[in-house]
Predict the 3D structure of the following.
Amino acid sequence: MSGAVRVGVLDYGAANMVSITKALAAVGADVTAVAEPAGLTTVDAIVVPGVGAAGSAMDHLRERGLLQPLTEWVRDGRPCLGICLGYQILFDASAEGEVDTLGLLPGRTEMLVDAPTLPHIGWNSVNAVRAHPLFEGISDGSYFYFVHSYAPVPADDRLVVARTTHGRPFASAVAEGNVYGLQFHPEKSSHAGLQLLANYASLAAAGAA
Amino acid sequence: MLARRVIPCLDVDKGRVVKGTKFVNLTDEGDPAELAERYAREGADEIVFLDITAAHERRGTMLEVVRRAASRAFVPLTVGGGVRSVEEMRDVLRSGADKVSFNTAAVATPELLTACAARFGSQAVVCAIDARRLPLGDDGVQKWEVVTHGGRRATDLDVVAWAQRVVELGAGELLVTSMDRDGTHSGFDTELLAAIATRVRVPVIASGGAAGPDDFVAAVRDGKVDAVLAASIFHRRLHSIASVKQAMALAGLPVRPIEEGLA
């Protein structure tokens, strides 16, 4: 491979594209927006951003003909990072609107349990369950920025990389093979967030090499 | 546990950062995107831009400011001032902002908060409340009145009742400014803050009057707020975000430590 790793940000009308695009560019990735299936052929890795509700996110993906192509592209072993709602829809289904989601990871998205406030908004600490290259160079317990009311409950605890507590602990970061998910917004999480995106770009580059 | 936030505020007039006392005597203090980046690097948990440009002089300058800031400052950004419709809020969010703050527009058309919360979620809707102390009533109860137009216009609205109403309407956060203290460096009106913060379930941001780190501690401890906002003490480098956070941490308040690393 030559040059910067090519990261596609999935543009399906469900996210603030400016911040994630600029944050990836700031850590040296060659970033493009992927709004149609053909875009998947020009990138080494994908980021699925997202704000909003699971149902409308799935509708947007379907309308743009991205549902099947994206799923196949990721199942072929290429790196995929889901952020916030983009993390939640990687799982089988969501309690938010009782919808089926992408099914790339086993488990269901549920509303946060015993949360003192909903949505959970603000900087909260992310505590490692196991070491993972995604968190290379980031101190355990670092604060990241969250905005959400739901979070995935992985069917297999071995997926969980880190947990965060708001009421009860929930899985704030997961990884399985080439599929990664973060409940917080690295693009809004200052130094720690940029370090994490840089780590993802490195993992993607290693995968594409 | 959620960290208590320290938020520098940038008053922006025609694309430049300005600061005055009690909303007058404005002086130019720099480029908003550049300052936002500096603050993010120095540990700001969030940045608020208040657009004070007169309506007839606005031509999308604020959208350009937000776009430039969002390209360099990787922390949550809030924009206040001049947003009067769902469409205008959409444009601000698309430019890279995370929240929009409503003030005079919320008093004029409270339904706007509901419409924006329905479309973008209440987490993106902040209601700014400018409060002025009223003379102590015969019952000995301290009350405050909501004022608008930078403090020039009274509304007859009771601050606490208004705070509760805007939360019901859809505001997900309140930015409370004491017009008696703003720009005076005499400390936050913690009585005002606690009167609101103990009666609503959404986060409250304190604004108006910060002189030093101890005032931030008092706003959180006595005013019961989740976040503290200040402008000139940071712009003029009288105090750093680090020194404020250090004081808060020493007082036992949860804060996000300032990290070294990538810009």
Remarks:
- The longest strand of chain B covers residues 5-13.
